[in-house]
Design brief:
This protein is an alpha/beta fold and about 300 residues long. The chain contains twelve helices and nine strands. The strands form two sheets. Strands 7-6-5-8-9 form a five-stranded parallel β-sheet. Helix 2 links the parallel strand 1 and strand 2. The longest helix has 20 residues. The radius of gyration is 19 Å and the shape is globular. The termini are close together.
């Protein structure tokens, strides 16, 4: 039976653990020059509505390094742009490829593809969730902190798709998550209600970034205006005053705090230049780990482990 990855709520705790272990193993093997061609002869389709650097290249290189072949398709290059129903495209692609990763706006479109396809469908980003990003981010936390248990993660910024996936992860894995967003930019209640929180009180929402980062092991931020919201940036710069992740804000976190950003970053807006360029930063580890986590995800879904 095929399995999809549309949000992190599609995974159980054992699934998380298996993916972390396998991704770290694949990264170590790659560093030693060992190439696992487990997906030889398999094909990954990529349908992207949104522009991408890290997500696209990491999925493509992940598939290639596993011996498979990626096929990139802009929505404008497909019959979807001429109003072919998503269910028809999904049925046809199921006859051509072995897995489909989609990066689009409306989460319901990914859900429709998953319902109509006979191959695994991966959410490579929607306006609602960014599951693969958080999988690779927690992998990075494990590498730098020795694990994700008993850590405190602070989110500082917009209540967007990335923090929605952090909430999903925290609800399943049970680590402490502090979410600080300005008033009127908080996480929507529908995403909080959907998360089956396992540890009572481990997810806390606040409008105070200082409260969120106090004694934090990890501080995470993202752009204040996501793709599609760029016309609101000037208003958001005012609304997000005090939410920049800088040395002053980080002084309230633990001395060995790990600062994270999914990139691309707007230097001088949500994150200070000197924080982004800190020699101990993990931003580039995050970006690299997307490739190895995507390998683990693709292997698991295509080979049905």
């Amino acid at each position: 039976m095929k399995k999809d990855l549309l949000s992190l709520l599609d995974l159980e705790k054992k699934d998380f653990e298996s993916l972390f272990e396998r991704a770290i193993d694949l990264k170590e093997r790659y560093s030693k020059g060992i190439f696992d061609k487990l997906l030889a002869g398999k094909t990954l389709g990529l349908i992207f509505d949104k522009k991408s650097t890290r997500t696209r290249v990491s999925f493509e290189t992940a598939m290639i390094q596993l011996g498979g072949h990626p096929i990139y398709m802009s929505t404008q290059d497909t019959q979807i742009s001429r109003n072919e129903p998503a269910k028809d495209t999904a049925r046809v692609l199921s006859r051509y490829i072995d897995c489909l990763a989609m990066r689009t706006f409306d989460h319901s479109l990914v859900e429709e593809f998953a319902q109509s396809s006979t191959i695994p469908v991966i959410n490579a980003l929607t306006d609602s969730f960014h599951p693969c990003q958080i999988l690779s981010d927690i992998m990075t936390v494990i590498e730098h902190k020795g694990g994700y248990k008993n850590i405190r993660v602070a989110w500082v910024g917009d209540g967007n798709n990335v923090v929605n996936s952090w909430i999903n992860a925290a609800s399943v894995l049970g680590f402490e998550l502090m979410v600080a967003c300005p008033e009127n930019h908080m996480v929507k209640q529908e995403f909080l209600k959907a998360a089956p929180i396992k540890e009572k009180g481990n997810i806390v929402l606040t409008n105070d970034p200082k409260e969120a980062v106090k004694n934090a092991d990890v501080v995470y931020t993202d752009v204040w205006a996501s793709m599609g919201d760029e016309d609101e940036l000037s208003k958001r710069i005012i609304a997000f005053e005090g939410f920049q992740v800088n040395k002053a804000l980080l002084s309230g976190a633990k001395d060995d705090v790990l600062v994270m950003h999914c990139l691309p970053a707007h230097r001088g807006e949500e994150i200070a230049e000197d924080v982004l360029e800190d020699k101990n930063s993990a931003f580039w580890d995050q970006a690299e780990n997307k490739r190895h986590m995507h390998k683990a995800v693709l292997e698991s879904l295509i080979l049905k482990d």
